[in-house]
Design brief:
heterodimer; A: 180 residues; Aminopeptidase; 28% helix; globular; B: mainly alpha; two-stranded antiparallel ribbon; GNAT_dom (chain A)
């Protein structure tokens, strides 16, 4: 579904019924992210949270994609998580990634009132760090040899509410857990 | 269908099946038929299969994720591990395996390093198959005969020999494989098993070490002495049967290296008598030195022969029960692997030897903080693991000293900050005598629990030093909660004991001293500071956050200085006062008799032992601890004020955050300080206080900058002078140098680096002062000048340089 058009490029919500879109997305990601993801990982995100998968198309071809989810974190705060973001190298440096991140965050806040948004990125991925940090994401942890290629990662968090800045032990549960 | 898939004829169970489809059954149709019931767009999975499993899952038909699609050459599939090999060829395999072993420890995994060796796979597979059969000897279980190859063609361990047809060369080459290479592999695998044991206990899987053991246990339950015996037997055989002395020597040293590796765990049983004169332990760890010599000889050998073709491949990834995705084989350059192997032995030797040389508690702690904690990125992963297990033994003793349990270590740590003679740690009948039995029991129970909690806190602290730098930060963050809780519980216990029973130490004026809480607060502040400054080296903070970190760290250091100069000092003075004035008066009043004699003896001990210790502690605080904290704080403050000056020209902003930020700056402030936010005392500075600290409205004229720049210069200068004095004291001052005897080099580097920071910053401040003097203030703008922040001389202080665009 077409969401908006920016600089002549169409921004769309992922169509869960469209097998071709799924294939295009997985091809784009596997071609440009260092981590090899199984089909399960794509389905995990796309099937459960299709509303947080946005594509950018040129002549029907997907040239950019962002895949995210929203879940309670330790049942004390609502956390948005950006799982993957890839732009075809041919279309980089045009602000497409930034538009996709903005779109994702705007909807996460509007629909689910998220407390924070989190992601991980390689310490050497200067482009990703520049993008996210320009939007206010902070490096909260360095994760030792996090990726299969053995690079360290930064955990980045964008804090949106007071809950995001309070230690878990000091937050109330979102809902009572069922008695086992 | 499963029945059909089972191998019917073991003799035709040939690895050749991996090359073509002979013997395989096509189940494509059945598979598609069975999945037809699944509706479109449904993920069918076990409830235990989560996203993390998914990120590591195998995907059929995806070349990046399906090990079934790995292409192997025919010679790789049919490689015969039982064939005889020349001594040179075996030496080449040994060296390659040692290189792969070090590659595994260098961020790789076993299937793409050591297990890529067909000899290793065959031997471990044979052992696993025969492990339970008690009628077969250990040596025979570890066979290198590839039973899966056709019987007629496969290499044998002993077949022809019994018929007397074997030439000398054939005999030597057969034994080279079935005895020498075999014992080498058994020994190497045994040590891999030791590494896995270390990893399970103190390292993080897929972080410090990536195992992927393919279900082999690497002789975990086999005694190292059996393995060493096999290796020794091979060495003896080599001496008698290999004429080429050069290769014989190299092979012997290769086997020796494996023996030395398997002796490493002997250090876990080496008892050290901390802080006491003891026998030189060098002789017990001489193998760690000899290993380096062997490595030097092996690494300089120019082997004309390469490893047998196809002896290393991806075969194991395709052949065994593999839960991982395909990976390329991995090997670090040979030179690097020798250097790392040598460094592993040397590092272990160094820390074992040093542990026997500490003469006091401060020396040990300074060593742990500086030599281990701050230098951890230069220590290899296994040496790191060995260190942790060597420091805190299975029985929770420290360095295996039977007299230093975690409990005594904790008491030592307390004594070292607030002095000995802490009443609550020495509750006896003299103290509790007048209380009811029930009350006594209650007090003892509560005290025991508090001591256990305190020991847990100390244990937590001790685990920080040997962990990787990222984990160190996470452990410190967790430590804040532990120490904050300890402070709350100990403070209430000490207050209660004093108020209800008048039990506890007093200050000179008779007020409650709170020695244990004072120690806990001291430890907590230290950890808070370490956590804040530790993030700089990990590149956690953006440039716009550096001011906040310096501002907050400086605040914490000031609190720590005040605490040591104030409460801690008063506690120490109070204790001395008790010993010198109060107790003698009390003794005088007691009537002559056994009680008086007992008190007199105790008083004598106090004067001869406790008082000098209190004196030493006071001296350490006043001559080293306080000056070092002040010197560090001066540097932090100078840097912080310099940043204020820079922000006044808008060369950097510390109040707005990124221009396009999607959140309030206050949220960023609170997120950054989240790890400290739950601490009760000291409470977190408010955002308003932070904003006020950056008020630069008064910097409207050139004149206003002069005093500010002068303050920066003075602080840099005083920090430099103080650090120079500390360096001198560490080397020359009799009171101080004993606390650093084992850390002199690292401590010297630490302070020299801080001195360089003072000098470097001073140059930049002078440059800025000159610029301000020679330029209109309105001309110093971000459009004309930029700020460059880069790696500095010291891990806490990056270089901050103003440059004209």
């Amino acid at each position: 579904m077409l969401l908006t058009t920016i600089d002549g490029l169409s921004y769309n919500t992922f169509d869960v019924q469209d097998q071709d879109e799924f294939k295009q997305i997985s091809r784009l990601i596997s071609g440009h992210l260092s981590e090899p993801y199984s089909i399960y990982v794509y389905w995990f995100f796309l099937n459960t949270w299709p509303q947080y998968c946005y594509t950018v198309k040129v002549d029907g071809l997907i040239i950019g994609v962002i895949i995210s989810k929203v879940e309670p974190h330790r049942n004390v705060r609502v956390r948005g998580y950006i799982g993957m973001l890839v732009i075809d190298p041919q279309y980089r440096n045009r602000g497409i990634a930034s538009h996709l991140v903005h779109l994702t965050i705007k909807n996460m806040v509007q629909w689910e009132n998220v407390d924070e948004i989190m992601l991980e990125t390689e310490v050497i991925n200067k482009g990703a760090l520049r993008l996210y940090e320009s939007l206010g994401f902070l490096r909260t942890k360095r994760l030792y040899r996090y990726y299969l290629n053995t690079h360290d990662a930064y955990r980045l968090i964008l804090p949106l509410t007071a809950k995001a800045t309070t230690r878990i032990a000091f937050l109330e549960q979102l809902e009572k857990l069922p008695l086992v | 269908m499963i029945e059909q898939l089972k191998i019917q004829d073991p003799d035709t169970d040939q690895v050749w099946r991996l090359l073509d489809n002979a013997g395989f059954i096509d189940i494509t149709e059945q598979l598609f038929e069975s999945v037809r019931a699944i509706s479109t767009n449904q993920v069918v999975k076990s409830q235990y299969f989560d996203l993390l499993d998914g990120t590591r899952a195998i995907e059929v038909s995806n070349p990046k994720l399906d090990t079934g699609l790995i292409n192997l050459l025919e010679e790789e599939v049919a490689f015969d591990t039982g064939l005889p090999q020349s001594p040179q060829s075996v030496a080449a395999i040994h060296s390659k395996l040692l290189g792969l072993f070090m590659s595994w420890l260098n961020n790789s995994s076993l299937p793409v390093t050591v297990l890529s060796c067909r000899y290793v796979q065959t031997l471990l597979t044979n052992f696993e198959r025969l492990a339970a059969d008690s009628s077969i000897s250990f040596a025979n279980k570890c066979s290198l005969v590839n039973e899966r190859l056709p019987l007629k063609t496969r290499g044998k361990a002993d077949a022809d020999a019994s018929q007397g047809k074997e030439s000398t060369q054939a005999y030597v080459e057969r034994i080279m494989v079935h005895k020498v290479l075999k014992s080498f592999i058994v020994g190497l695998c045994k040590f891999i098993g030791t590494c896995l044991y270390i990893s399970t206990n103190v390292l993080y899987e897929e972080e410090d070490l990536t195992t992927r053991n393919m279900n082999f246990d690497f002789f975990l339950n086999v005694d190292a002495s059996i393995v060493i015996k096999e290796l020794q037997s091979s060495i003896n055989w080599l001496g008698k049967n290999i004429e080429d002395k050069a290769v014989s020597s190299v092979l012997t040293h290769q086997l020796n290296i494996i023996i030395f590796l398997n002796q490493i765990d002997s250090v876990f049983y080496l008892p050290i008598h901390l802080f006491k004169q003891q026998r030189d332990i060098s002789s017990q760890i001489v193998f760690l030195k000899e290993a380096s010599k062997s490595i030097e000889i092996v690494s300089s050998y120019q082997n004309p022969t390469e490893v047998p073709s196809a002896s290393f491949s991806k075969f194991v990834q395709l052949d065994l029960d593999n839960k991982n995705i395909p990976f390329e084989l991995y090997q670090i350059p040979e030179k690097e692997s020798w250097a790392k192997l040598s460094s592993m032995f040397e590092t272990i030797h160094a820390f074992v030897l040093k542990s026997s040389q500490f003469s006091n508690f401060n020396e040990l702690m300074n060593y742990l903080v500086i030599d281990i904690g701050h230098d951890i990125q230069n220590i290899g992963v296994i040496a790191r693991g060995v260190f942790q297990l060597y420091l805190i033994r299975d029985d929770k003793s420290i360095y295996g000293d039977p007299n230093v349990s975690l409990n005594t270590f904790t008491v030592n740590a307390i004594d070292n900050v607030v002095g000995q003679s802490n009443t609550l740690l020495n509750l006896n009948e003299l103290v509790l005598g007048s209380l009811k039995e029930e009350t006594k029991i209650q007090i003892e129970e509560r005290l025991n629990q508090l001591l256990i909690d305190l020991e847990s806190g100390m244990y937590h602290n001790l685990t920080v030093y040997g962990n990787n730098p990222c984990r160190q930060q996470q452990l410190r963050s967790r430590g804040l909660l532990i120490w904050d809780n300890l402070q709350v519980s100990w403070e209430s216990f000490e207050v209660e004991m004093h108020q209800l029973f008048n039990i506890g130490n007093d200050l000179v004026g008779g007020e409650i001293a709170l020695p244990i809480s004072s120690f806990v607060y001291y430890s907590k502040l230290q950890m808070m500071i370490d956590l804040a400054l530790g993030g700089i080296d990990l590149d956690i903070y953006k440039n716009f956050e550096l001011y906040l970190i310096y501002w907050y760290s400086s605040y914490l250091i000031q609190l720590l200085i005040e605490h040591v100069q104030g409460r801690v000092s008063q506690v120490l003075i109070g204790k001395a006062h008790q010993i010198e004035k109060v107790i003698p008066k009390k003794i005088k009043k007691v009537k002559a008799g056994p009680k008086k004699e007992q008190l007199k003896a105790s008083n004598q001990y106090n004067h001869e032992v406790i008082l000098p210790e209190i004196d030493r502690t006071q001296n350490y605080h006043s001559l080293y601890l306080i000056p070092s904290l002040i010197a560090l704080n001066d540097l932090l403050e100078a840097s912080r004020i310099f940043m204020i000056v820079l922000s006044s020209f808008n060369l950097i902003d510390y109040l707005q955050g990124p221009k396009n930020s999607l959140t309030k700056f206050e949220n960023l402030y609170n997120l950054r300080l989240k790890p400290w936010s739950s601490i009760g005392v000291p409470s977190l500075p408010t955002f308003k206080q932070y904003q006020n600290s950056l008020d630069v409205k008064y910097l409207s004229q050139k004149l206003n900058y002069t005093p500010l720049l002068r303050i920066i210069e003075e602080k840099l200068q005083s920090s430099k002078v103080a650090h120079q004095q500390l360096l001198k004291d560490i080397e020359e001052n009799d009171t101080i140098k004993g606390q650093f005897a084992n850390t002199t080099d690292s401590m010297t580097k630490w302070y020299n680096d801080l001195i360089k920071v003072s000098i470097g910053h001073s140059v930049e401040v002078k440059k800025l002062a000159k610029l301000i003097e020679s330029t209109e203030l309105s001309e110093i703008t971000p459009e004309k000048y930029s700020l460059e922040v880069s790696q500095g001389y010291h891990k806490y202080f990056p270089k901050i340089i103003v440059e004209e665009k």
